[in-house]
Write a structure and sequence with these properties.
Elements: H1 11-24, H2 37-44, H3 48-60, E1 64-67, E2 71-74, H4 78-104, H5 109-120
Antiparallel strand pairs: 1-2
């Protein structure tokens, strides 16, 4: 998880995103217990209800599940689903606008692919 919060969005949403990032990055694995509400709230000095709201978002989205009296765990298939969703977001947010600009510049498909291939491994 990242060290600080910013003012760009509510803290509970940032907690949700930080844990989702940890799942995508392989720092949290399927079936692994997510740090408790108490641990997260103490570490980040935020209200437990705020942390609880972020964890509930993960559960509601199906990326995590609660085990009563034990804690919250990463759900099976969470990483695969998050990666698929983020790839789709990447396509919409970055690829489509870039492709639109390449076409506006009358760049051929081959030129566009060549540029990507040249920089892909850097």
């Amino acid at each position: 998880m990242k060290a600080v919060f910013d003012d760009s969005k509510p803290i509970f949403q940032q907690i949700f995103e930080m844990i989702a990032d940890d799942i995508v990055d392989g720092e949290l694995h399927e079936g692994e217990q997510i740090p408790s509400t108490t641990e997260i709230s103490k570490f980040y000095q935020v209200n437990r209800a705020t942390v609880q709201k972020g964890l509930s978002m993960l559960v509601d989205a199906g990326y995590a599940y609660k085990q009563r009296g034990v804690g919250v765990f990463v759900a099976e298939g969470a990483k695969r689903r998050l990666l698929a969703e983020r790839k789709e977001e990447f396509h919409i947010q970055y690829v489509k606008p870039t492709l639109k600009e390449a076409k506006r510049l009358q760049m051929s498909k081959e030129e566009f692919i060549r540029l990507i291939e040249e920089d892909y491994d850097d």
